[in-house]
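PROTEIN–LIGAND DATA SHEET

This sheet pairs a single protein chain with one bound small molecule, flavin-adenine dinucleotide, given as SMILES. Inputs appear in the order they were entered. The predicted three-dimensional arrangement of chain and ligand is reported afterwards as a token string under its own label.
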Amino acid sequence: MQLAWSPEDEEFRTDLIAFLDEHTPEQMLVGFDFQDVDDERELVPQWLRDWQATLFDHGWMIPGYPSERGGRNCTPVQTLIYLETLASRRLIRSGHFPGYAIVAPSLLEYGNEEQQKLVPAAIRGDTIWCIGMSEPNAGSDLAGLQTRAEVRDDHFVVNGQKVWTSYAMIAQKCFCYVRTDPTLPKHKGISLLIIDVDTPGIDIRPLRHISGTAGFAEVFFTDVIVPRENLVGGLNGGWAITQGSLAHERAGLWVEGVARFEQTIEGLVTLARQQGRAGDPIIRRKIASAYELAASLRALGYKGFASFAQGSSAPEHSYMKMAMSEASKAAFELGMEISGSLAPVTDPVFAASTNRFVHGFFMSFANTIAGGSSEIQRNIIAQRVLGLPRR
Ligand SMILES: Cc1cc2nc3c(=O)[nH]c(=O)nc-3n(C[C@H](O)[C@H](O)[C@H](O)COP(=O)(O)OP(=O)(O)OC[C@H]3O[C@@H](n4cnc5c(N)ncnc54)[C@H](O)[C@@H]3O)c2cc1C
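PREDICTION REPORTED AS:
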């Protein structure tokens, strides 16, 4: 058994570090935080867009991809080195994940030649994409979506509503799931359309998170004309793509998730010291438990990665999304407890030390819902991983 990195892996790491040392934007070094963004038009600042383009241009946006797609054909182990190095420096690749993490891999799998030409701009971040899945009556039960697309000659006419659509306010394109045949069983009558967000008939109304940050929107479609060639993967072939879309979203997320959780725990230690609670045995025990959990999650992530790198499925990763988002929520709740009387104060002028925990606490609920709620994840683990009967 070889427990050391190979010389090629070490060389890969050296190249990455040299690149990051030279190119990391100053704003990221001083600790950029999305909580500082309260104007939805500034959701992805220009310097962050430039950073994504720089990563792409140097083959560092998705290094596992071939060079013609802005990668460097690296191995899964090198991708792990890449993700861990970024996470340890608290660097993010992009301010808008749908394009590179969901749209690009989905188009590479299901798109035609013409549609695949959209991939480089999605990965480089030149095109901002949003994902139109959820509707007021279709979230966990995505197959119940009702936004209707009627086929007429060479185009579709779309009517309906999406909700919780992240980045819709700044997106140029929407990966939009629509019902094309209401007579078929619900999973079978769904198609995927690429819709230009500036098409007449689209009305975007921003929604704010409980934290006050603007991140997503409601999107209304009234008689929106979409060319026939914007159909991805065949008429009524959308359901298979929805399954891939969410899988793409989850792949590799655990590395960043565990690192963030560990950083939250470091923040809890600092906060406990600042608030004079570091000697409190209950607080100490709770922080220690969170630390243990982080170590277990990291070990589980590596175990899953080992299976994945050898070409097997990694059921551990089904658990990681749910476990990390719930653990992170509990850690932020502990931060609120340590903050004491400052817990409800969100204004950094009055509560500089606790403010980020308050904001993090509010945002920590989002990850237990987005991309499939914890309850739905538990159902999936019970049925698909543990093989328990459906009730
Ligand atoms: C920050 C954020 C960003 C998002 N971005 C996007 C986006 O870009 N595009 C997009 O399309 N959507 C997006 N969403 C929406 C997200 O996918 C949905 O909120 C999620 O799938 C849950 O759907 P829902 O809100 O309709 O809740 P519901 O499905 O109505 O669920 C309500 C509650 O009931 C529980 N529940 C539902 N069904 C079951 C069941 N069978 N068993 C047990 N419990 C159940 C749920 O866990 C939840 O607690 C985003 C959400 C958030 C929070």
